[in-house]
Design brief:
Rossmann fold; 2 domains; binds guanine; 3-stranded parallel beta sheet; about 40% helix; alpha/beta; globular
């Protein structure tokens, strides 16, 4: 068997096209959806991410503002600025690019964001609501993975899903979303004994450990769906995932490549969250199957 490739670029393009239609519908009703991105300091990778987020907004008919603040911005100033954005009716989504310079406590900044504008889904209120299964926003990367699984017609209910990685941004919310969709979920991490014994149980394997090629062929059940969230740069400059693609592809039924797999989904889902927020602000009816917190 050789796995079918899950084309993240194509799936993300279809999500973005859908988003552009929803943005046009909102604009016709007098609301231009807007995303405010705050970046503190001059980390080149973060600047690059922020630029691609702004470009993606523009391409889909959303307004975006990039607020660049110096690395020595005091916490109080940053929190006060987030409060200003909370009160701005033209801003439907607020994203504070992480990581923040070391001396700034990211948690305090995220908690300052209005949970109804928290398009990253990182605020405690949204994290807590995800446990119950009903947040205002799903975190973008795991939500993107769910959209990919749905697009590929992968059965989640009753499946055994194994998530490798327990980060707050990906691993933990990913596990909750799979659990809420009816999977039996195992979460593995750097202290897990006999990782292979766990991963070999997986019908759906999500690798989000941030370690190059830690998932090898002997670690995957024949016919599994393998989702690689990792993006690791090797010393020779090559980008690889957490999965050893060449070794695993002949065993799996479906697999995401790196690059071109999960990566493009994250920004697509960020746009979708911003549109969702603008639709709520404009009093649009919920999309089919959509739920919301108070
Ligand atoms: N830095 C890297 N990825 C992300 C993300 O998804 N959201 C934010 N806010 N910062 C990031």
């Amino acid at each position: 068997m050789t796995a079918a490739l899950i084309d993240g670029k194509a799936i993300a393009a279809s999500v973005r096209a859908e988003t552009a239609i929803r943005a046009a519908r909102l604009a016709a009703a007098g609301t231009v959806p807007g995303l405010a991105v705050v970046i503190v300091g001059d980390d080149p990778a973060s600047r690059l991410y922020v630029r691609s987020k702004a470009q993606a907004c523009e391409a889909a008919g959303l307004r975006s503002w990039v607020h660049a603040m110096p690395a020595d911005t005091p916490l109080e100033r940053l929190v006060a600025f987030v409060h200003e954005l909370n009160g701005d009716p033209e801003v439907h989504g607020i994203l504070v690019q992480l990581p923040l310079p070391g001396r700034l406590d990211a948690r305090l900044v995220i908690e300052a964001i209005d949970p109804q504008k928290d398009v990253d889904g990182f605020h405690y209120q949204n994290v807590g609501a995800l446990v119950v299964g009903d947040p205002a926003f799903y975190p973008c990367t795991p939500w993107g993975v769910m959209r990919m699984l749905e697009h590929e017609g992968v059965a989640i209910d009753g499946a055994h899903a194994v998530v490798v990685g327990r980060s707050t941004i990906v691993g933990k919310p990913m596990a909750l979303m799979l659990l809420n969709a009816g999977a039996t979920v195992t979460i593995c991490h750097s202290h897990t004994r006999d990782l292979s014994a766990q991963t070999r149980q997986a019908d759906i394997l999500v690798a989000a450990a941030g370690r190059a090629r830690i998932i090898g062929a002997g670690m995957v059940k024949a016919g599994a769906t393998v989702i690689d969230v990792g993006i690791n740069r090797l010393p020779d400059g090559k980008l690889v995932g957490d999965v050893d693609f060449e070794a695993v592809a002949p065993v799996a039924a479906r697999i995401t490549p790196v690059p071109g797999g999960v990566g493009p989904m994250t920004i697509a889902m960020l746009l979708a969250n911003t549109i969702r927020s603008a639709e709520r602000a404009a009093g649009f009816a919920l999309a089919a199957g959509e739920t919301r917190i108070a």
